[in-house]
């Protein structure tokens, strides 16, 4: 039986093991001589599907034993970085666009283009734009095959929406602007209820004593804002940088971005969203939605199953509001499977990556109902599975269908960018500084790339 998760060694024992054995990468075989491919991922909800993919793969490749390990998000990146430093990282791991640039710049992942070309992988089978997320900074090389995609939508408490006079169809028609917030802000006001039962759009509303916030959030969003402010800024004709991937001039000083953040912050001032201190107090957004403290959230499609199965509350999802551009918008993120450059078995690792990027595996994941696979035909089936489970998957797929996606920004210095933008956005949202202060933060970001004014 293939192990699906192995307990990590305590740090002291792990260090001792490395001291005694040196680099452990030359021992990745089973007792019966099969090649071991270690595969790491962070999402526990996807484990059953990928276990099935591994079983199918091993049936066709009896010389390989795939061992899957899953860690929580924060532990995942810490352990992965430590493994690379110790030259004992997993052969294959799930990669994220925010981390990809760093791995490429440090030479820590393999260029898969020779493998892709030799195998004749059809890159056109994937949703448009996903394969190009993994191209190298000089426009050559491919460092992963697309495995899935995600967009964001508005998850909302259906009972509270009905009580406020909104139907599911109404929520598909919402629009926003940075001047008065449009019908979207009207919706948030109607969904906000103070401790006396007065709604945010009614006389006598007490913004300082709110029982149910119209919308929740988890943090200020740093320089990405995927489930915070991105849907608004991107639908206001704003772009992250001069190009993507590998932008070198960022646009956090753009007046369209500044006015978007000013409007978003005003929702806190009006009592429709909690303060930053309350939002980051330790209670998760989905927990607050389940408890009735938040009436709605902007969240990713990857959380559809978790939110759908919340106890004590019925939820549904609507697409992001139409902005001043005349269109709605969503970050279009996707994950890939990368091969560690130090893998002692790169050819076998590629065979596993090729399987993960194939219809054989992505059809399995479509049936799991937890992700939207990258292959177009598998996406179509995943939408059906979501709908059968009661989630309006069209709210996510509408961005793909209408071409209103914006690919997730990729940069070799995203960690440094975040170290600038996270405190800058925190300061704005906590009313320590004004949105115009983002211009100074943007200068510091562009200085990272040698492109300051």
Automatic annotation (TrEMBL):
Keyword Electron transport on entry: no
The UniProt record lists the keyword Transport: yes
InterPro entries assigned to the protein according to its UniProt record, in alphabetical order: Bact_solute-bd_prot1, SBP
PANTHER family on file: ARABINOSE-BINDING PROTEIN-RELATED, SN-GLYCEROL-3-PHOSPHATE-BINDING PERIPLASMIC PROTEIN UGPB
UniProt protein name: Carbohydrate ABC transporter substrate-binding protein (CUT1 family)
Domain of life: Bacteria
UniProt entry keywords in alphabetical sequence: Signal, Transport
GO cellular component: cell envelope
Record localization: Cell envelope
């Amino acid at each position: 039986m293939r192990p699906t998760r192995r307990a990590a060694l305590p740090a002291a024992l792990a260090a001792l093991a490395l001291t005694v054995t040196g680099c452990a990468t030359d021992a990745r075989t089973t007792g019966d001589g099969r090649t071991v491919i270690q595969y790491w991922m962070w999402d526990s909800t996807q484990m059953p599907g990928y276990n099935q993919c591994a079983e199918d793969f091993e049936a066709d490749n009896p010389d390989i034993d795939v061992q899957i390990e899953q860690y929580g998000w924060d532990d995942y990146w810490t352990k992965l970085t430590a493994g690379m430093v110790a030259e004992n990282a997993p052969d294959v791991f799930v990669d994220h666009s925010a981390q990809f640039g760093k791995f490429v710049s440090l030479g820590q992942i393999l260029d898969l283009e020779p493998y892709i070309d030799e195998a004749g992988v059809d890159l056109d089978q994937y949703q448009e734009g996903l394969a190009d997320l993994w191209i190298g900074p000089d426009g050559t090389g491919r460092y992963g095959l697309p495995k899935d995609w995600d967009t964001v939508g508005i998850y909302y408490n259906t009972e509270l929406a009905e009580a406020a006079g909104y139907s599911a169809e109404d929520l598909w028609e919402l629009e926003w602007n940075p001047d008065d917030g449009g019908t979207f802000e009207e919706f948030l006001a109607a969904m906000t209820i103070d401790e006396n039962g007065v709604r945010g759009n009614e006389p006598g509303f007490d913004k300082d004593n709110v029982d149910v916030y119209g919308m929740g959030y988890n943090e200020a969003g740093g320089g990405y804002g995927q489930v915070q402010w991105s849907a608004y800024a991107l639908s206001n004709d704003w772009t992250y940088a001069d190009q993507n991937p590998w932008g070198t001039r960022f646009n956090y000083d753009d007046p369209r971005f500044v006015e978007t953040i000013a409007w978003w912050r005003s929702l806190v001032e009006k009592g429709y969203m909690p303060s930053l201190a309350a939002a980051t107090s330790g209670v998760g957004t989905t927990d607050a939605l389940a408890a009735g403290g938040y009436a709605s959230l902007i969240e990713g499609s990857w959380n559809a199953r978790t939110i759908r199965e919340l106890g004590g509350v019925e939820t549904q999802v609507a697409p992001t509001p139409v902005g001043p551009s005349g269109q709605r918008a969503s970050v279009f993120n996707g994950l890939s499977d990368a091969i560690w450059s130090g893998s002692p078995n790169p050819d076998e690792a590629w065979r596993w990556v090729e399987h993960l990027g194939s219809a054989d595996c992505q059809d399995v994941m479509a049936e799991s109902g937890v992700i939207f696979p990258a292959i177009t035909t598998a996406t179509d089936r995943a939408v059906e599975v979501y709908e059968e489970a009661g989630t309006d998957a069209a709210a996510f797929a509408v961005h793909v269908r209408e071409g209103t996606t914006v690919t997730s920004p990729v940069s070799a210095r995203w960690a440094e960018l975040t170290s600038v933008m996270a405190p800058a956005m925190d300061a704005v949202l906590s009313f320590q500084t004004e949105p115009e202060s983002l211009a100074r933060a943007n200068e510091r970001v562009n200085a990272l790339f040698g492109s300051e004014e």
